[in-house]
Amino acid sequence: MEGSGSTTLFPLHRAKTLHLVRHAHGAHQLEVEDRDALKSEELFDAQLSLQGWQQVDNLNKHINECGLAKKVELVIVSPLLRTMQTAVGAFGGNSNRSATSNINTPPFLAVELCRERLGVYYCNRRRATSEYRTIFPAIDFSLASI
Q1: Taking residues 37-59, what's their average pLDDT?
Q2: Which domain of life is it from (predicted)?
Q3: How high is the pLDDT of residue 1?
Q4: CA dihedral 102, 107, 110, 116 (to 10 degrees)
């Protein structure tokens, strides 16, 4: 069977596009030179640094200017503070970085299997979802255990 190059097995107009975004710069990355500092409880569930928030603002601006914001159907996010801050800051509506409602935003779904590896570093450990629900009420935590 010869392929013509223009034939596909799945119609492209029905295909979904997957965009992967890593979390913005986190407070734990300020300590990257000192591996022992990464084991500090002070970095538990590290939040974004000021540089990270600037990255989020830039990404949000880009997402809106290029029209991607209108095309996103779902945002899947790891249930770590810095990843959720990145997700709602970049893909959230005009709510000044917090996922306080689903107005003008795609649905957000926290998925445990998207988390970074577990280990000795406190920055990769997270709070209970009950705490996150008050911070990010627009995120669905049904696929995040604990």
Answers
A1: 86
A2: Eukaryota
A3: 46
A4: -110
